[in-house]
Amino acid sequence: MNRYASLRAIESPSTLDDQQWLTYWIIYSLITLFELSFWRILVWLPFWPYIKLVFCMWLVLPIFNGAAYIYENLVRKYIKIGGRVDGNYTEDQKKVLQMMSLDARKSVVQYVEKYGWDAFERAIKAAEKEAKRH
């Protein structure tokens, strides 16, 4: 189920669900490393599988959005990766750029820096007109 939801997140245009599932898989990997490292101790704890189950449910279930909570409140504070959209963009423009893949975002940012945001919007409108014709 988690893998199917992860694939759906990858295929969706929004990055929010990607963030949720990537965070989930990273945290799940850390739990697995913890289990592999401390298996001799965990064998003696009969409640460990239940703790893990409840924690994983908290991470995954949309009601709780635990993975997103951990990302927003713990991870995001301590990392800065080159995918962020900085510069003189409006909030709407930043949202549009954030919905793109990293490669597409880099290309768009380069195009906007060279020709301006107006030229980019004209190119989008031209592409939309072309798509409607076909």
Considering the chains and any ligands shown, give keywords for the structure.
8 helices, TB2_DP1_HVA22, membrane, transmembrane helix, transmembrane
Description of the molecule:
This protein has helices at 2-11, 16-37, 39-42, 48-60, 66-78, 91-98, 102-115, 117-133. It is mainly alpha-helical and 134 residues long. The protein folds into two domains: 3-64, no CATH class; 88-132, no CATH class. Helix 1 runs antiparallel to helix 2, helix 2 runs antiparallel to helix 4 and helix 2 crosses helix 5.
A few lines on this structure:
This protein is mostly helical.
**Overall shape:** elongated
Instruction: Indicate the proportion of strand residues.
Output: under 5%
Can you give the mean pLDDT? 77
What Rg do the Cα atoms give? 20 Å
Low-confidence sequence ranges:
none
Question: Which secondary structure elements does this structure contain, and how are they paired or packed?
Answer:
Layout: H1 2-11, H2 16-37, H3 39-42, H4 48-60, H5 66-78, H6 91-98, H7 102-115, H8 117-133
Helix pairs in contact: 1-2, 2-4, 2-5, 7-8
